[in-house]
Amino acid sequence: xxxxxxxxxxxxxxxxxxxxxxxxxTENGFAKFAADQVYQWLYKIQERDISLWTNVAKKIKxxxxxxxxxxxxxxxxxxLSKDGTRKFLVRMYDGQTVEAVAIPARDxxxxxxxxxxGCAIGCTFCHTGxxxxxxxxxxxxxxxxxxxxxxxxxxHGNAERLTNIVYMGQGEPLHNYDNVRSATIIFMEDKGLGLxxxxxxxxxxGLVPQIEKMWDFxxxxxxxxxxxxxxxxxTELMPINKAYDLERLFNAIKKVPLKAYxxxxxEYILIADLNDRPEDIQGLAxxxxxxxSKINLIxxxxxxxxxxxxxxxSKIIWFQEELLKRGYICTTRTTKGQDILAACGQLKSExxxxxxxxxxxxxxxxxxxx
Length: 370
Description:
By secondary structure, this protein is an alpha/beta fold. The protein is built from eleven helices and 14 strands. Helices cover 33% and strands 19% of the residues.
């Protein structure tokens, strides 16, 4: 991980779970119940101006302004795809940036969140992996992405609200276990945002020691970035497989507590002539329990300088149909946001390139108007 200079910073108001905020109030001589009121203003009512919190004591508001950081991360760029997907570049307190993506569907608006600045896993098919890991995001920075984008949508007249969260942005969520866990507790708090456990999905590349700790994690949907059914191919795509091969991974998965009727989703990026063969279908059948598994096929999304290619549409359809014939629940993910590098595997904090893209679009618009 890159070592960054320390920047003095107050503890963020958005870093507290409700239980932690109640403790803070008790320790500072405030009424414990007022923590619940603050949580409602922060997350349910979503009022950023503390002076308007009418039922919160003046001394509490003064304490927040003196002792806590009440600011959210800053959206410094956004780009709209032709399919309605919108990518946001979000700047943190120390100037580091991450990307988050709002993905529309018929009955929901899903936010793809980042959990780290960069990523240490180094998957060869992923644009984020070319960054390396700069640092973990804190719980308030993870929550802050959601809140900053929520306010942006409101301020720009978007009637839709964010309904779902997927930890599928930059970073390996389980590498940042404690902060992602705290953020998830905040997202699910009934007195705050109140997101259902079924509305939150955590995707992991297979960090076995952290998977084995998930008995302590809120019961959200789990997705495993599998991408290959054979160790040699998975190691080529995902260096983490050298340390935690398929046998170790699946031994750990067996320990994941699943609620009744829940399944684990296995994400499988289809890459032409690498993992889209008949023997790969058989390999998946050998690995996955039909009763506890869902397979989500992800046609490969190109990014600059990538060595891999997307299979033909007919090959993608064939691969899915073969798995369906074997009795698996199998879906193919619709590619969204590809024209703004917002699709799966394409995220990377590159403000300069995004700025150039923005300028190019503005120039194109001006030329069309001439």
